[in-house]
Amino acid sequence: MKNIFIILIAIALFSSCKESEIANWDSSTKVYFNHQVGGSSVDSIGFYFIDENVKEALVPVHIQIAGNIATEDKKVRIFADTEQSDVEEDVHFALEDYYIFKAGQERDTIYIKLINEDPDLATDIFGLVLKLEATEDLELGIEDKLQFKINFSGDVIQPASWKYIQGSFGYVYSKVKHKTCIEIMGRDFPSIDEYFENSNYWNFEGYKCGQYFKENTVYDENGLLIMGW
User: Fold this and answer.
1) Side-chain half-sphere of 197: how many Cα atoms within 13 Å?
2) 101, 128, 155 - which closes a domain
3) Pick from 41, 62, 37: which is nearest to 130 by CA?
4) Is 7 among the domain residues?
5) Are the beta carbons of 5 and 107 closer than 8 angstroms?
6) How many domains does the chain have?
């Protein structure tokens, strides 16, 4: 009987400890990236300056709160990881000193300024890796969601993954098809790793694009009809 009593005390202490840990998590407000595309959380997006006359663009990025919802506006600080990025601040992008996560929101949107002044953007894709930084207002949240990447260019470029994904997207590549598929999917074509990690998802996205071209008459940049698939 005494042994049973000791075990019950141990269980109670263990439970109390766990509840305390949960309470500590819930009592603070933590921030992380949670960008949603088509109902799925992604860790990168693609952006293209389709119109060469557009020199700046504000790209939306979703961030989310874990723990208690803030009752007042909170400051969010974001910086560029220069070691993982191949862009230069004030040449390719510009960041605010801090962004605002509005009170009462579980998820909010910040806007990252991209700049279209570098002539190399016409032929190359640049990558901007963003990271969250803890502030007095907000701690850091989910560990693997503290980084987000924006790949951007002055025009769409056939991706390195095309030979792997072409079967899902009608085989023949064109810039018009590429841009139209981005509009339909809400994101760029997948990288090789992204495709093989979730090929069923991308095959379905390809099916949606194929149906669009079946139902709509669209010509590519060479005047050729884009056939549905």
Assistant:
1) 6
2) 155
3) 62
4) no
5) no
6) 2
The pLDDT tens digits for 81-140 are 989 999 999 999 999 999 999 999 999 999 999 999 999 998 888 999 999 999 988 999
How far is residue 116's CA from residue 136's CA, in Å, rounded to a whole number? Answer: 34
**Token couple for 154:** 């002055």
Contacts of 1 (CB under 8 A, 6+ apart): none
Q: Which structural domain range is residue 67 located in?
A: 22-155
Domain with residue 151: its CATH number is 2.60.40.2030
- Whether this prediction's pTM lies above 0.85 is answered by no
Pairwise CA distance, residues 187 & 181, whole Å: 8
- Show which of 124, 155, 186 is a domain's final residue: 155
> Contact 213/226 with Cβ under 8 angstroms?
yes
Residue 192, domain member (yes or no): yes
Q: Coil, strand or helix: which one is 208?
A: helix
110/60 Cα distance (integer angstroms): 6
